[in-house]
Backbone:
């Protein structure tokens, strides 16, 4: 199983970033896919989830209306469009996979997102 995140970087408050996750080594279209976020000294927290077909999505309250999770099963790809960024969105973002919608079972190495003036 391999999950490789990209697209992180530096953004200004109010700006946008689009994170990507390239998946391989498993049946991508069969799994729930997650985005998680970790800040220093804290646990890895849930950000968003998308179901195997893409019809089911759920977001943490802190990002709902600003972030959009999407996937392309033909490309084994997952994305997170992040708009209206705030400094509180700063952290390492991880792509994860799960058998269920309850929690992820595996995640990648992460990509750093820093939102600062």
Residues:
């Amino acid at each position: 199983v391999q999950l490789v995140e990209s697209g992180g970087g530096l953004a200004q408050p109010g700006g946008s970033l689009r994170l990507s996750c390239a998946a391989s080594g498993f049946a991508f279209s069969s799994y729930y896919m997650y985005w998680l976020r970790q800040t220093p000294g804290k646990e890895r927290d849930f950000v968003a989830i998308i179901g195997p077909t893409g019809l089911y999505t759920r977001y943490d309250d802190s990002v709902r209306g600003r972030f959009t999770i999407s996937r392309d099963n033909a490309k084994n790809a997952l994305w997170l469009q992040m708009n209206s960024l705030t400094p509180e969105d700063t952290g390492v973002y991880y792509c994860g996979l799960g058998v269920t919608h309850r929690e992820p079972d595996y995640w990648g190495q992460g990509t750093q997102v820093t939102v600062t003036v």
In short: The mean pLDDT is 97. The first strand starts at residue 2 and ends at 6.
